[in-house]
Write a structure and sequence with these properties.
This protein is mainly α. It has helices at residues 8-12, 40-48, 60-71, 79-95, 101-107, 112-121, 131-147, 155-170, 180-204, 208-223; strands at 232-235, 238-241. A two-stranded antiparallel ribbon has the order 1-2. The protein is globular and about 40 Å long.
Length: 243
């Protein structure tokens, strides 16, 4: 069973040709963007991290600081912004003359697609209005596609990857200045890209040539954001470097 279950929405976009582009950026100049690669040092440090020293969580100062930091990853969703984001994603893929772009435009004309994703990821303790959660879904889905994996990912594993995603995004110096508009555009682009990746996997089926094409496209796209998926292995403790 795949991390992102095949749903009505996934089946509707099964005919869309997968793009190697990691994310389509909006017409606005985003503060946060995946086309600004995460440094390899940060990725390596995150993947190699072992259990950290215990922190005195009884400290009111620590609790306040931790709460403030985690709040930076969340945003208050706007249905109006969501429709704008989805429309722009559809338009950008039409410009790229992608196969099935018209079908994608029709699919993205409904904001319910994001609500459907929320229902899918909720059992894993993830939310659509959190950048780290959206990144977790995208990261796991991209890795599975790059490996041709259909293995089941449980909540513990998803939460372990989320903690890694939190570390990566909290290290981004632009996060503190990001607006809700910026965060929502980035998160929803990640969610849509995860859907497209899952659709590409479903479409490839058992055809080896198609599977290899999807794997290559996903790895190329992830590399643009600083993730060398071929060097990673997914475990219950999150992603680790392959030996």
């Amino acid at each position: 069973m795949k991390f992102l279950k095949r749903s009505l929405w996934a089946s509707l976009i099964a005919s869309i040709c997968f793009s190697s582009t990691v994310l389509a950026t909006s017409s606005l100049e985003l503060t946060l963007a995946l086309n600004e690669p995460v440094t390899s040092d940060l990725i390596a440090k995150t993947l190699k991290a072992t259990q950290t020293a215990a922190i005195n969580t009884n400290s009111n100062l620590f609790v306040q600081e931790a709460t403030a930091l985690m709040a930076q990853l969340e945003y208050t969703p706007s249905l109006e912004r969501r429709q704008t984001n989805l429309s722009e994603l559809a338009e950008q893929r039409q410009v790229k003359n992608l196969e099935g772009a018209k079908d994608l435009e029709e699919l993205l004309s409904s904001t319910q697609i994001i609500d459907a994703v929320q229902q899918t990821i909720e059992p894993f303790g993830l939310k659509i209005n959190n950048i780290a959660d959206a990144y977790t879904l995208w990261w796991i889905t991209a890795w599975q596609a790059s490996e041709g994996s259909t293995s089941y990912v449980d909540k513990q594993t998803a939460q372990a990857v989320k903690q890694q995603a939190v570390k990566i995004w909290l290290a981004n110096p632009k996060l503190a200045q990001a607006t809700d508009t910026n965060k929502q555009a980035l998160a929803e682009a990640l969610l849509i890209q995860a859907l497209l990746t899952q659709a590409a996997m479903n479409r490839a089926g058992q055809d080896q040539t198609s599977q290899q094409a999807v794997q290559a496209a996903v790895r190329e796209g992830a590399a643009a954001s600083g993730l060398a998926l071929e060097q990673m292995q997914l475990t219950e403790q999150g992603f680790v470097l392959k030996p």
